[in-house]
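Thread: Newbie trying to understand structure tokens

Hi all, I'm a second-year student working on a class project, and my supervisor (Dr. K.) asked me to get a predicted structure for one chain before our next meeting. I've only ever worked with sequences, so writing a 3D structure as a token string is new to me. If someone could post the tokens and maybe explain what I'm looking at, I'd be very grateful. Here's the chain:
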Amino acid sequence: MPLNCGMLKEEAGKKEEREALLNPLEMERQIMERDDLQQKQHKILSCLINLPRRMLSLHGTDNVTEFVLHNLCHENCFNIKKAAYFIDNPDFDCLKGVAGFARDQAPDDTEGIWSDPLAFSARMKVSSFNQKVRSQLHGSLRKGNKSYEELAPTLANELGMKSYQLCSWDMKHDNHGIVMYEKNDSVELDEQSLINGMSLLSFCPIF
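---
Reply by user tm_fold:
Sure, no problem. This is what the structure looks like when written as tokens:
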């Protein structure tokens, strides 16, 4: 049946009515997503601002890296389920695991670990994931001009990490920091914010 102008106007009117009904719901959803994102960004900023002062409170402690990684992975910061931190040193031709975080093997309290560092350190010593990460030792990928994606599947398999992502940054003395991580939610992390946060690990002693 051929369409006439009246039928076309009627269909257009119905479409406008549907869009008018959907728009308020869509607008509400977008507002909620924006508020959630702003709240998450505020939590991350608060975490990163407080970390340097807390790091100074543990001056002389060897395993500051484990404390910092714990806070960065907490749900009030980047909300990461698992994270493995490595340093690639081309001068010594090695890529070494430094610290590992697994949510089911770490305390939930971010305040308590700083007030009772001995208890937290003891818990990290018996963390199987942390010990697996620290046992990793490979040849430098930077020295061989290779990408970290080449070694990532091997590391992920040994550490039991499935849906992993990589974050890397330059460090002093031509070293390179790498964090392999699994997110705890579906929210996409801002790459620059993540690098800015993880680069705080560069100021921790290697133990």
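A couple of things are worth pointing out once you decode it. Residues 44-203 form a domain with the Beta-Lactamase fold (CATH 3.30.450). The longest strand covers residues 80-89. Feel free to ask follow-ups in this thread.
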